[in-house]
Amino acid sequence: MLTSFDPLKGKRLQLLDEAGRLVKGKFPPLLEGEALVAAYRHMLRARVADDKALLFQRQKRIHTLPVNRGQEACAVGSALALGQDDWLVQSYRELGGLLVRGATIRNHLLYFKGSEWGSVHPGHPRILPLSVPIGSQITHAAGIAHAIRYQGGQEVVLAHFGDGATSQGDFHEGINWASVFKCPVIFFCNNNHYAISLPRHKQTASATIAQKAIAYGIPGLQIDGNDLLAVHAATRAAAEHARTEGPVLIEAFTYRMGPHTTADDPSIYRSAEEEAEWQPRDPLIRVRRLLESQGLWDDAREEAFRAEAAAETDQAMREVDELGETPVDEIFAWQYADRPRELARQQADYEAFLKWKEAR
Amino acid sequence: MPAMNLVQAIQSALDFKLADDERVLVFGEDVGHEGGVFRVTQGLQATHGERRVFDTPLSESVIMGAGLGMAVAGLRPVLEIQFCGFIYPAMNQLVTHVARMRNRTRGVFTVPMTIRLPYGGGIQALELHSESMEAMLAHIPGLKVVIPSTPYDAKGLLISAIECEDPVLFMEPKKVYRAFRQEVPAEAYRIPLGKANRVQEGTRITLVAYGAMMRVARQAVDLAAKDGLSVELIDLRSIYPMDTETVLDSVRKTGRLAILHEGPMSFGVAAELIARVNEEALMSLEAPPRRICGFDTIMPLPMGEQHYMPTPERVLFELLQLHSFPE
Ligand SMILES: Cc1ncc(C[n+]2csc(CCOP(=O)(O)OP(=O)(O)O)c2C)c(N)n1
């Protein structure tokens, strides 16, 4: 599969079209029946949580956060292609993928309310905390994959990043490293067409991002990032290749349907017509159609599951609402393995102030 | 005189220099069409065109390195790094080239470049959106570091920065961006780099602050006055070069010194200033100087941020301690 979609020839992998029909071709979908239902549920759960989080931000219950809408197939499809022991190196727009791997909606909200505990997931799955400096995580993925190779492991690393990240040195340096050392890593670019206000065509003069792989001597392919089945199948194939041969670059062609973050106003830099054009390509719609055509889903199930996810998110928010501020000791406790004298003194001074303040 | 907030004052300085000097180019991530994530450059592209004000690809390293290239080729780049916490990919260029070019070429090639850098916390932002790394930057020989605290100062300092023959980091306190307005002349004026401003006279303690901490300092000075303590307040304005004279004059009078900044305490601006005062006015000191700073930790996420950011009350506490020394 990896070589059948030459990015220089403008090829793009699609397995499920916008109407929810399977595309006939060489590559069968790898998600069917109940597995496909489960995948759809992950997407829907992420969508509901994402929509609600936006609302909670407007209610000032959490702070600024990125918006996932439109990119659920990328996050969920790629994460579902991983095994339990594989690594997810996230950017910050992969909520669905986090949920697939056992992270919770509660932690998502907790992080954006402003607690470091939001990055600590139940059971400590192999998920690095989100990465704010654009593209920096790409090099971490190369290093984890290097360690896997060194330790003789069979795991792979999935690294997510945006189209904007491809302008950073870390993108090129990380892929170059992984290619030289044949590290088992999948570089997954969520080309959502914008880096805040900058459109993709102003980010790079390359016709595709996938073709950048050619320069590093590794396979690169462009896929329909709003097609769950294509994302999943491509990531699976890439994981196989990564384990045996080395890295792969996947460019998922998608669209950020919402604002960059809750602090962003897309109307400044893109038209309502453009947004409307992408509406029917919503990644959830086509999976739902396919499932419905197979009798695996219907309005009642949709409604019931949405209600369930909404209740879960509301409950999570209520729990997070209840939490008080970060205890003073935690601010000092986690910076070093031990507590250097300097920090101990700063803490003592600060606590003396708090005492004084209370007594005043 | 028009009333302007910090954003408008900076905009007005940029607008003036763009019109005044065609060597000036303004660029960075999202600064062109959108006018920057804080809208500081809003409208400048419409007025001065896409050749003068433009969006760049998402790479701080090339923004800084290309800035250097433009500067040695005769332009006066004014570039924006979107947040202080994102300057790190550009540090290589900044330290290894920008700061060194004049000295290495004995003045043949120079870098008259201004780097605009929104900084500072207390805004409940995402990770790496609240840093205050002026000490790290001021530690690099060859760079000037300026931090205005008011709209008036910002306009005058920014024009001076753009006209400066050396690279200047112009750090903008985000928390002050829209915090208040002040009368700012519509026409151009200049405030020299490297000059502090004594904003309030007092007799018992000298308090030095800058940037967003100036508002905290003013409130603390008012609180202290209620406790009968007279504090002299100095706005440093420029971190490098640092106006030691103004501080020394004040300390010789008051005998007590406190320095307030939100960046981490160790190896910070306060430490440097105390060293200078020790060197030149040790005998005037009646008490060990006090540092009121951020901790030697990363900036806590919003649920813990209030502990990290110095507050007027915390400053008051420290001032009272300083005043009561040696008890
Ligand atoms: C090194 C760095 N520079 C700037 C920023 C500010 N910033 C946050 S997101 C963003 C755009 C990222 O675009 P892209 O990589 O396409 O990812 P997307 O947000 O579209 O998912 C920018 C410039 C940052 N986080 N890190």
Account of the 3D structure:
The complex is a heterodimer of chains A (360) and B (327). Chain A folds into 2 domains: 7-326, 3-Layer(aba) Sandwich (Rossmann fold), CATH 3.40.50; 327-360. Chain A has helices at 33-58, 72-80, 95-100, 105-113, 137-151, 169-180, 200-203, 212-215, 228-244, 272-278, 283-293, 299-322, 328-333, 341-359, and strands at 87-89, 157-162, 185-191, 194-195, 198-199, 220-224, 248-253. The longest helix of chain A has 26 residues, at 33-58. Chain A contains 14 helices and 7 strands. In chain A, the strands form 2 sheets. Chain A has a 5-stranded parallel β-sheet with strand order 1-2-3-7-6, sandwiched between helices. In chain A, strands 4-5 form a two-stranded antiparallel sheet. Chain A is an alpha/beta fold and 360 residues long. Helices cover 47% and strands 9% of the residues of chain A. Chain B is of the alpha/beta class and 327 residues long. In chain B, strands 3-2-4-5-7-6-12 form a 7-stranded mixed β-sheet, sandwiched between helices. The longest helix of chain B has 15 residues, at 6-20. The model of chain B has no long low-confidence stretch (mean pLDDT 98). The A-B interface holds A 63-65, 111, 113-116, 118, 132-136, 164-165, 167-170, 195-198, 202-204, 263, 268-269, 323, 325-326, 328, 330-332, 335, 340, 342-343, 346-347, 350, 352-353, 356-357 and B 29-30, 33-35, 37, 55, 57-59, 61-62, 85-86, 88-89, 124-129, 265-266, 295-298, 300-308, 313-314, 317-318. The complex binds thiamine diphosphate.
Main pleated sheet of chain A: 5 strands, parallel
What is the strand content of chain B? 15-25%
User: Class of the largest domain in chain A in CATH?
Assistant: Alpha Beta
Termini separation of chain A: 71 Å
Q: Please tell me how large the radius of gyration of chain B is.
A: 20 Å
Shape of chain A: globular
Q: Give the tally of structural domains of chain A.
A: 2
Backbone shape of chain B: globular
Share of helical residues of chain B: 25-40%
Tally of individual domains of chain B: 2
User: Within the CATH hierarchy, at the fold level, what is the topology of the largest domain in chain A?
Assistant: Rossmann fold
Question: How does the major sheet of chain B shape up?
Answer: 7 strands, mixed
Uncertain segments of chain A: none
Supply the helix-strand structural class of chain A. alpha/beta
- The overall average pLDDT of chain A, rounded, is 97
